[in-house]
């Protein structure tokens, strides 16, 4: 089961226990994939997702006296709702299903329910193990602007992009998707997403640390190679014996311990010397070696 399907399955498993919230959720579905026909007497819901039309049918049966029939086609399913003995215009709440009622969505919980219905109808979320991407695909710009406006009320940085004659409302940041899941009440999916985000952050932190340590090791090895080359040159020119005792001591230790860090070399001295002291002595040796190279070049 895809992550999107998990979210939708979780959403429909919960009951609003409130007719107004049911209506707001139905509004989200109908305004996305529904059509009113026959002088406000019938609805047609067109979807290829069986859990959406089953959930829609349950919400409708719980709130309206509709006769529901289902027609399954090759690629999708059309669900027909016919009123029993009266037109939708007889019920102002039912009329709200066919036309977006901004006043109905002044309450926070109503907006959440509307987003639930909208996501059920036209939403999807990518597998968080691969990427962070949530989108809702609308067939016109007004619907996209409406969804974006509602999402913004929850602090979501929703964007709109035109893709193949459809307007896509999307968010791409992991924490924003978590906030969206919280808003629509998909808490199990939220926990799964957060676990993935934590693991990703941990891996990224470890990788950065390993990369940093690897780079430092590389620098240490390269520095040690240069130091040994300098000392070998001084030794080759029979100048090692002429070095001051402090420099001669560190030079011999470096040759005997080519893999040791400056700090470790310092602990081998008597008395011990800190990292900066060891580095200072080796820099002096490097200058002496450079003078010998220049002399040979001349």
From TrEMBL:
Family, per entry: Belongs to the WhiA family.
Annotated keywords: Cell cycle, Cell division, DNA-binding
Domain WhiA LAGLIDADG-like: 112-203
One Pfam entry name: LAGLIDADG_WhiA
Name of the protein described by the UniProt record: Probable cell division protein WhiA
NCBIfam families, alphabetized: DNA_bind_WhiA
Domain Sporulation regulator WhiA C-terminal: 206-289
InterPro entries, per database record: Homing_endonucl, Sporulation_regulator_WhiA, Sporulation_regulator_WhiA_C, WhiA_LAGLIDADG_dom
Example of a GO biological process term: regulation of sporulation
Gene assigned in the entry: whiA
């Amino acid at each position: 089961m895809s992550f999107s399907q998990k979210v939708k399955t979780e959403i429909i498993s919960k009951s609003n226990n409130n007719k107004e919230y049911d209506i707001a959720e139905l509004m989200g579905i109908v305004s996305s994939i529904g059509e009113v026909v026959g002088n406000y007497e019938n609805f047609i819901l067109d979807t290829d997702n069986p859990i959406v039309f089953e959930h829609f049918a349950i919400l409708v049966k719980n709130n309206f006296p509709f006769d529901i029939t289902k027609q399954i086609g090759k690629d999708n399913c059309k669900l027909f709702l016919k009123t029993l003995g009266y037109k939708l215009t007889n019920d102002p709440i039912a009329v709200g299903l066919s036309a977006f009622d901004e006043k109905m969505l002044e309450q926070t919980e109503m907006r959440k329910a509307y987003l639930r219905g909208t996501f059920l109808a036209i939403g999807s979320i990518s597998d968080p193990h691969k990427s962070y991407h949530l989108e809702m695909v609308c067939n016109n710009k007004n619907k996209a602007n409406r969804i974006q406006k509602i999402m913004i009320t929850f602090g979501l940085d929703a964007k709109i992009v035109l893709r193949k004659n459809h307007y896509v409302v999307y968010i791409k940041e992991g924490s924003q998707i978590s906030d969206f899941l919280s808003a629509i009440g998909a808490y199990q999916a939220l926990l799964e997403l957060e676990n993935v985000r934590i693991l990703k952050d941990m891996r990224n932190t470890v990788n950065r640390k390993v990369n940093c340590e690897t780079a430092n090791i590389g620098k240490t090895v390269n520095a040690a190679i240069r130091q040994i080359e300098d000392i070998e040159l001084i030794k080759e020119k029979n100048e090692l014996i002429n070095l001051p005792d402090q420099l001669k001591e560190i030079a011999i230790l470096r040759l005997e311990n080519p893999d040791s860090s400056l700090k470790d070399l310092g602990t081998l001295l008597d008395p011990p010397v800190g990292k900066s002291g060891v580095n200072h002595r080796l820099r002096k040796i490097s200058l002496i070696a450079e003078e010998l190279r220049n002399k040979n070049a001349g």
